[in-house]
Write a structure and sequence with these properties.
Distance between the termini: 64 Å
Strand content: 15-25%
Shape: elongated
Number of strands: 6
Number of domains: 2
Helix content: 40-55%
Order of helices and strands: EEHHHHEEHEE
Radius of gyration: 26 Å
């Protein structure tokens, strides 16, 4: 503590509490975006409880990331004149992280992870390189047949294709 001319006591807690509030708001805003993105990943086990949590966070994230980011901006405005130039760098990075989470919570980023295959490429069964135990989704219309490997379908989830002149969407 230091004494100031007016006789008042100046403490570090004058900056500590706003800094802690800022950090917590940035962490909360970022978590609302990162937790669903981490839980819902291709090729990873997704428990029912985890999916319920991820979808609940995903549904509420647009509102709460905006609220938490606005709060972080208020704390940043309060802290800005009170901290050194070197401590402003983490402040700016925190604001970028919170603002990025607020924007990303409004975008369907799962579509980026699980994008459909617009034009599938096929090989004859002899040249596929598939293991004999590998599972496939098979479709046959007339004389035309297709097999879609499950390991590829698990990533993309949707393949748009035409089999014997019939347009279809194969999903997994």
């Amino acid at each position: 503590m230091e004494l100031v001319d007016s006789g008042a006591v100046k403490t570090k807690s004058g900056r500590m509490i706003p800094s802690l509030g800022f950090a917590l708001l940035v962490a909360a805003s970022s978590s609302l975006f990162l937790i669903p993105a981490f839980i819902i990943r291709p090729f990873r086990f997704q428990s029912p409880r985890g999916l319920i949590l991820a979808m609940a966070l995903r549904q509420n994230a647009p509102l709460w990331t905006a609220v938490f980011t606005a709060g972080a901006i208020v704390f940043a405005i309060f802290l800005w004149p009170r901290i050194s130039i070197w401590k402003r760098i983490p402040l700016v990075l925190g604001l970028c992280l919170a603002c990025g989470a607020a924007v990303m919570s409004r975008i369907d980023y799962f579509e980026w992870m699980f994008h459909p295959v617009p034009v599938p490429g096929f090989e004859s069964a002899d040249h596929t390189g598939l293991d004999s135990s590998e599972m496939v989704i098979a479709v046959r219309f007339g004389n035309d047949a297709r097999a879609y490997p499950i390991r590829e379908m698990a990533y993309h989830h949707v393949v748009n294709d035409v089999v014997d002149g019939v347009p279809l969407a194969v999903t997994y």
